[in-house]
Amino acid sequence: MRDDLIEIARIKGPRGLEGQIWLAPYGDSFEQFKSYPYLIIGLSGKPRRVLSCMQRKGKYIVRLEGITNISQVERLKGEGVFIKRQWLPPLGEDEYYWCDLIGMKVVKIDGTELGELVDIIRTGSNDVYVVDRKKQYLIPAIADVVNDISIEKRIIVVDISSLDDILE
Fold first, then answer.
1. DSSP state string for 73-119
2. Are the CB atoms for 155 and 96 separated by under 8 Å?
3. Which of these CATH numbers, 1.10.260.40, 1.10.1660.10, 3.40.190.10, 2.40.30.60, describes 5-87?
4. Which of 164, 102, 107 lies closest to 127 in space, CA to CA?
5. Percentage of the chain lying above the pLDDT 70 cut
């Protein structure tokens, strides 16, 4: 995967006959998503100008330059939608992009490894980290639980003492 591209959505299929595209977004708010002037379809795609963007039922409908009919969209179904990392807005203190957290090792404060962060679920009030593909520990991403995130060391340290009964 190219390090300069960040996957932000997946193409679900066409909407209508004139090239509109249903997208399933991964993490951005709609306000942030609609600020991107270009989207890239597939890892080898070129940036395509966003002509229109709207939100419906938790998904986004976009119209992109050069895509004008349903058959073009059908061929793109299932493709990832990317942006360039430099298009992302700057982060505040203690903020992280999901793409930087996925794949990090998650350990308890005593050093016991729980596994790899494999997914993040947005719940509204806080994100939930999905750790270990098989065991699927669900760990709330809140200050009382997440002690430290080190992007450099690729480690997330969690205090799950209040969750031990749930995780066993």
1. HHHHTT-EEEEEGGGSPPP-TT---HHHHTT-EEEETTS-EEEEEEE
2. no
3. 2.40.30.60
4. 102
5. 94
Tell me which amino acid residue 122 is.
Answer: R
Return the closest-CA partner of residue 11 out of 69, 58, 78: 78
78 Cβ neighbours under 8 A, 6+ residues apart: 10, 11
Please name the amino acid found at residue 112.
T
> Which pLDDT tens digit goes with each residue over 1-57?
456 888 889 999 999 999 999 999 887 678 888 889 999 999 878 899 999 999 998
Residue at token pair 């994100």: 127
Q: Domain residue spans in the chain? A: 5-87, 98-163
Tokens matching residue 13: 């299929």
Query: 97 with 40: CB under 8 angstroms?
Result: no
Report if pTM > 0.85.
no
- pLDDT recorded at residue 2: 58
- Phi first, then psi, for residue 145 (nearest 5°) are -110, -45
Of 142, 144, 101, the C-alpha closest to 120 is: 101
